[in-house]
Write a structure and sequence with these properties.
Chain A: Belongs to the DeoC/FbaB aldolase family. DeoC type 2 subfamily. The complex is a heterodimer. By secondary structure, chain A is α/β, with parallel strands linked by helices. Chain A has 14 helices and eight strands. Chain A has a single domain, classed as TIM Barrel (Alpha-Beta Barrel). Chain A is globular, with a radius of gyration of 19 Å. Chain B folds into two domains: 255 residues, Aldehyde Dehydrogenase, Chain A, domain 1, CATH 3.40.605; 180 residues, 3-Layer(aba) Sandwich (Aldehyde Dehydrogenase, Chain A, domain 2), CATH 3.40.309.10. Chain B has 15 helices and 20 strands. In chain B, the strands form five sheets. In chain B, strands 14-15-16-13-12-17-18 form a seven-stranded mixed β-sheet, with helices on both faces. In chain B, strands 9-8-7-10-11-19 form a six-stranded mixed β-sheet, with helices on both faces. A three-stranded mixed β-sheet of chain B has the order 1-5-4, with no helix packed on it. In chain B, helix 9 links the parallel strand 12 and strand 13. Chain B is globular, with a radius of gyration of 22 Å. Classes of the chains: A alpha/beta, B alpha/beta.
Chain lengths: 319, 478
């Protein structure tokens, strides 16, 4: 929220040059780290029980991007993942499907086949994930490859080196180019790797930069560094999408990724969504969890709510 | 509130606290009946349910308690500091062990949300006893001379907004310095003090060192006027504070007063807006605004006024008002019908004087004493709601254009207890803080308390300091 609220037209002007973009991003209100973390912690004390918990668990399941991003991924593993995304709990067909499966570009075709006809989307990390250290041509080729194989969503990483060096326009141009490569076929999630941006001010700037460049989603992290999604950085990004919509009318999604492992944690994030951006974001079109181990805990808690007993890891599938 | 994600009720269990049908006065280590046999009822503000019947202290009881405290003073003050510290540490640990019980009790008796008693009040109560326990054997090194002596019997009168916390602020430094205590809790919230009396017994505190006299203003007046009381400490309204000052004038009693406030919360245009909004909410809606240092006047720089007010209104719409025992409740009940009437009257005057009133859509429970979070815009310094302490969830919004104007407006009040500054610019924080006539100035935060930090006022907000090393001085002959 800059001091003098710009119109959508004025927002287009801020990307006219490196200078205007820098002035705009640095003109955003600062973030007080202590206050931000205190707010996130206080929302974390909301006590979600019974019907609200059942609702939250199903909602969280429907928001999971079921992910496998290992060098050792095989077609078999991806097919298993796809099957699980469609029917997360084979013993209870009322369990909602996950939002998407998230794989490397070379696995997109396999994943697409595995979830065919289910409504589950296929997301693919591209642009030299997770470091993002490649020439733009290579990154764009990576994206086109994934889109051509049928990816519905592209998760791109930004060039953190350029961002930290203050070359905001370079980062902006890169996102614009990737968005163009996605065309109308795929929605674009822009990953900031918040752990490497190191300050909350940077995370707010990156959020606005990503949205200005046309991101459909802004995403915390790759899950490959020490600090990934936290309640505080997700809260900050939710404030950013809320403010961006208030100014431009454009709604952008948020995806925390990495480190969210338990139902309790996931519910805390949903409380953040509910009380920060609002109920318009309580839908898997606008909010996702990038988490591979979260789903099983959600399923076990769901079984516990249904049966009154906690079953244990052998009552859900390993992947 | 979002309709898609309704939080199911999450009430804290009442079974952790066992409230007796009646309580006596706590004098010389025993619970006794009032000399005149009077009793009064204490009710839960959120339901109007009668919680218990409590003995009502009169002048004769005050005299009994002061005599018990005087007798106990001889031995207590002669103990080595390290021995007194042991008792204080023991009390602190028992408070921690019983914190759930005390939090539920306080919420029932006071009406404030369990979230606050559990997360703010009780941890601070324990922290104060721990902190002053640490001072008990180091008084020679506190900067008040080589061998500072206790004053004697301390007569203490505390308010209903933070019953147990105010008790801790008063009793912990008094005991650490070797004084004995007669304390009168407020008539609407006597229960946690009586539970504290039980904690004193559990800790093996010698008889008569702490005496608790639930009662009304007459008992407080008798206590502060008692000739054998050496020190008077009062937290409460400015009117009563003035009365006490008159009573004590001309005697050898030492006096500290912590009275009303009308704190200014100043938001500059370069402030971290989202966190400032949180700070404004904490400043005025914490404990339903029934806080003497509440940030009840918001001074916002004109250039960010619209943006800030939009954000504030949106935030207020997410506040959850209702059953204070529900762990998700942000705004609980007003402490008493009398206080509710006062808030209602002042808010109506705000409207009558031309300020613009706004509250979020908010359903108030049918029983109990409730007031929706309220915002007044277009307020000027000439409005009553910008001058009088409301002591409720009512925020008056004023604007300014320059830092000088902000300081002038912030200081233009008969009070001077607290203020807040919101800006990303460190040099501005220091420059403005130096010019504010307020006992506490918070920067980029509000309503944060810590036992190590002295607290007290300027002007009609009283004098003397509680908390920190400064808090010892009020209980020592220096």
């Amino acid at each position: 929220m800059p001091t003098s609220a710009p119109t959508a037209h004025a927002l287009a002007d801020v990307t006219a040059s490196d200078g205007t973009l820098r002035r705009f991003l640095h003109g955003l209100p600062g973030v007080d780290a202590v206050g931000l973390e205190a707010r996130a912690a206080s929302l974390g004390t909301r006590s979600i029980k019974t019907t609200a918990k059942a609702y939250a668990i199903d909602l969280a399941i429907s928001m999971v991007d079921l992910t496998t991003l290992e060098g050792a991924d095989t077609p078999g593993k991806v097919r298993a993942l796809g099957a699980k995304a469609v029917h997360p709990d084979p013993t209870d067909r009322t369990t909602p499907a996950t939002a998407a499966v998230c794989v490397y570009p070379d696995m997109v075709a396999t994943a697409k086949e595995a979830v065919a006809g289910s409504g589950v989307k296929v997301a693919s990390v591209a642009t030299a994930f997770p470091a993002g250290r490649a020439a733009l041509d290579v990154k764009l080729a990576d994206v086109r490859d994934a889109v051509a194989a049928g990816a519905d969503e592209i998760d791109m990483v930004i060039d953190r080196g350029a961002f930290l060096a203050g070359k905001y326009l370079k980062v902006y141009d890169e996102i614009v180019a990737v968005k163009e490569a996605c065309g109308t076929a795929a929605r674009l999630k822009v990953i900031f790797e918040t752990g490497e941006l190191s300050t909350y001010d940077n995370i707010r700037r990156a959020s606005w930069l990503g949205m200005l460049a046309g991101a459909d989603f802004i995403k915390t992290s790759t899950g490959k560094v020490a600090v990934n999604a936290t309640p505080a950085n997700t809260l900050l990004m939710l404030e950013a999408v809320r403010d961006y919509r208030a100014q431009t009318g454009v709604q952008v999604g948020v995806k925390p990724a990495g480190g969210i492992r338990t139902t309790k944690d996931a519910i805390k994030f949903l409380v953040l969504v509910n009380e920060t951006a609002g109920e318009d974001w309580l839908d898997n079109h606008w909010f996702r969890f990038g988490a591979s181990s979260l789903l099983n805990d959600l399923l076990m808690q769901r079984q516990k709510l249904a049966t009154g007993r906690y079953s244990g890891p052998d009552y859900v599938t390993v992947d | 509130m979002a309709s898609a994600f309704e939080y199911a009720p999450a009430p804290e269990s009442r079974s952790v606290v066992d409230i007796a049908p009646s309580y006596g006065l706590f004098i010389d280590g025993e619970f006794v009946e009032a000399a005149e046999g009077k009793v009064f009822k204490t009710v839960s503000p959120s339901t109007e349910e009668v919680l218990s019947e409590v003995a009502q202290a009169g002048a004769e009881d005050v005299d009994r308690a002061v005599r018990a405290a005087r007798k106990a003073f001889e031995k207590w003050s002669a103990l080595p500091g390290s021995e007194r510290a042991k008792y204080l540490f023991r009390i602190a640990r028992i408070v921690q062990e019983r914190s759930r019980e005390l939090a539920v009790l306080e919420t029932l008796d006071n009406g404030k949300p369990i979230r606050e008693t559990r997360d703010a009040d009780l941890p601070l109560v324990a922290a104060h006893f721990f902190y002053y326990a640490g001072w008990a054997d180091k008084l020679d090194h506190a900067g008040f001379g080589a061998d500072p002596r206790p004053l004697g019997v301390a007569g203490q009168v505390i308010p209903w907004n933070f019953p147990l916390l105010m008790l801790a602020w008063k009793i912990a430094p008094a005991l650490a310095t070797g004084n004995t205590v007669v304390l009168k809790p407020a008539e609407t919230t006597p229960l946690s003090a009586l539970f504290f009396a039980d904690i004193c017994r559990q800790a093996g505190l010698p008889k008569g060192v702490v005496n608790i006299l639930p009662g009304y203003g007459d008992a407080g007046a008798a206590l502060t006027a008692h000739p054998d009381v050496n020190k008077v400490a009062f937290t409460g309204s400015t009117a009563v504070g003035k009365e006490i000052a008159r009573t004590v004038a001309g005697t050898s009693k030492k006096l500290t007063l912590e009275l009303g406030g009308k704190g200014a919360n100043i938001v500059f245009d370069d402030a971290p807006i989202d966190q400032a909004v949180e700070g404004i909410v904490t400043g005025i809606f914490f404990n339903q605004g029934q806080v003497c240092c509440a940030g009840s006047r918001l001074l916002v720089q004109e250039s960010v006024q619209d943006e800030l007010l939009d954000a504030l209104k949106r935030r207020l719409s997410t506040l959850r008002l209702g059953d204070p025992l529900d762990k998700n409740t942000d705004i609980g009940a007003i402490n008493s019908a009398e206080q509710l009437a006062r808030i209602t009257t002042l808010a109506e005057r705000g409207e009558a004087e031309g300020a613009e009133r706004w509250s979020p859509a908010c359903e108030l429970p049918s029983a109990g004493y409730w007031f929706a979070p309220t915002l007044f815009t277009n307020v000027t310094q000439a409005h009553t709601i910008a001058r009088d302490e409301i002591f409720g969830p009512v925020l008056s919004v004023l604007t300014f254009r320059t830092p000088d104007e902000a300081v002038a407006k912030a200081n233009n009040t008969q009070y001077g207890l607290s203020a807040g500054i919101w800006t990303e610019k460190g040099s501005r924080i220091l420059a403005v803080a130096n010019k504010l006539r307020a006992g506490v100035v918070w920067s980029n935060t509000f309503n944060k308390f810590d036992p190590t930090s002295p607290f007290g006022g300027y002007k009609e907000s009283g004098f003397g300091r509680e908390g920190g090393r400064h808090g010892l001085e009020a209980y020592l002959d220096v």
